[in-house]
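step=encode ok
step=design start
structure_in=
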């Protein structure tokens, strides 16, 4: 079992004044209990009161100028002095035994990283509850070796971060927005022959979105970055440890639905877009039923319309990502030809 001198907690954040105080209150409690060697807060160009709040706590601060979440995490683990690095996001509140739940997995030398799960810090919000229960359902089904862990609560061996070069800072790093840097890192680690695990008993409370517009904006960005992610990792395009082929096909079905809308004015084919929408509803059903069985909460039926709406937003984001990916590929090919000439 690793000791307190082995683990550095890295918390990246930008303009996190609403959540950073409860985040650091919980983190410092773990530090005071002797379970951490230090806490590093990576401030990625905050313009609010975040720096003033952080100065009240016994943490080391690394200040950057809006380099993005992947690059911020890289600066954090490279500044660490310990062999293990624990990443927790600035909108998360560490549960008291979260680290103790992760550490035993690294007693297996083949395992280089282990991720945890969420508690819901916004339990009074229906939207936050829907988001949380979906994620929780997925985490509970992730057992044994996995090919993806989220960086909101993830413990890595520093050596593997050095080996694979850490988080991507070019293709999947998204300054000011959700990117795909954690999925890309996970895939590269597994492709290098290393093991990853998830322990759903390691919990951090998360301030899930409570406003639909903000949530859908983030989902559009996930679709955008996902298009680039699966272009680079095509073997994961039809599912991974976190999401299945049924999840990945939904944005495609949504885009197909939009393309058939003109058929509504025809007598012979007006049923086609209706059938597409019905298919999207059916695709939400298996996950919704699992959440209902686990929680007994009938409010979770609202996940069906949320999932359908999200599919359209992700689909549009993915379509935009495909266009950008094609343009980027052409640009790179053009640069290569110029070099060869």
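sequence_out=
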């Amino acid at each position: 079992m690793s000791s307190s001198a082995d683990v550095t907690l890295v918390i990246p954040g930008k303009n996190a004044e609403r959540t950073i105080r409860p985040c650091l209150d919980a983190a410092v409690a773990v530090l005071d209990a002797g379970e951490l060697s230090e806490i590093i807060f990576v401030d990625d160009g905050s313009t609010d009161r975040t720096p003033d709040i952080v100065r009240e706590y016994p943490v080391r601060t690394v200040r950057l100028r809006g380099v993005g979440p992947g690059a911020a995490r890289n600066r954090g683990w490279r500044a660490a002095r310990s062999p293990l690095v624990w990443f927790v996001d600035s909108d998360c509140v560490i549960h008291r035994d979260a680290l103790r739940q992760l550490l035993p997995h690294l007693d297996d030398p083949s395992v280089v990283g282990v991720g945890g799960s969420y508690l819901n810090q916004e339990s009074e919000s229906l939207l936050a509850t829907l988001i949380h229960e979906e994620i929780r359902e997925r985490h509970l089904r992730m057992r044994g070796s996995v090919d993806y862990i989220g960086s909101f609560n993830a413990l890595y061996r520093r050596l593997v971060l050095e080996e694979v070069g850490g988080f991507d800072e070019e293709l999947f790093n998204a300054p000011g927005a959700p990117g795909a840097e954690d999925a890309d890192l996970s895939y590269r680690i597994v492709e290098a022959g290393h093991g990853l695990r998830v322990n759903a008993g390691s919990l951090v409370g998360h301030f899930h979105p409570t406003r639909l517009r903000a949530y859908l904006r983030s989902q559009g960005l996930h679709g955008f970055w996902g298009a680039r992610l699966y272009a680079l990792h095509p073997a994961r395009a039809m599912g991974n440890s976190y999401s299945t082929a049924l999840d990945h096909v939904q944005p495609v079905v949504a885009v197909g639905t939009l393309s058939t809308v003109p058929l509504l004015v025809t007598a012979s084919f007006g049923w086609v877009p209706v059938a597409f929408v019905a298919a999207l509803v059916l695709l939400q059903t298996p996950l919704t039923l699992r959440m209902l069985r686990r929680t007994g909460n009938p409010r979770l039926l609202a996940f069906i319309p949320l999932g359908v709406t999200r599919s359209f937003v992700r689909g549009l984001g993915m379509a935009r990502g495909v266009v950008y990916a094609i343009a980027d590929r052409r640009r790179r090919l053009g640069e290569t030809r110029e070099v060869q000439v």
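step=design ok
step=annotate ok -> The beta strands are 7-13, 38-44, 60-64, 84-88, 92-94, 111-120, 145-146, 153-157, 195-206.
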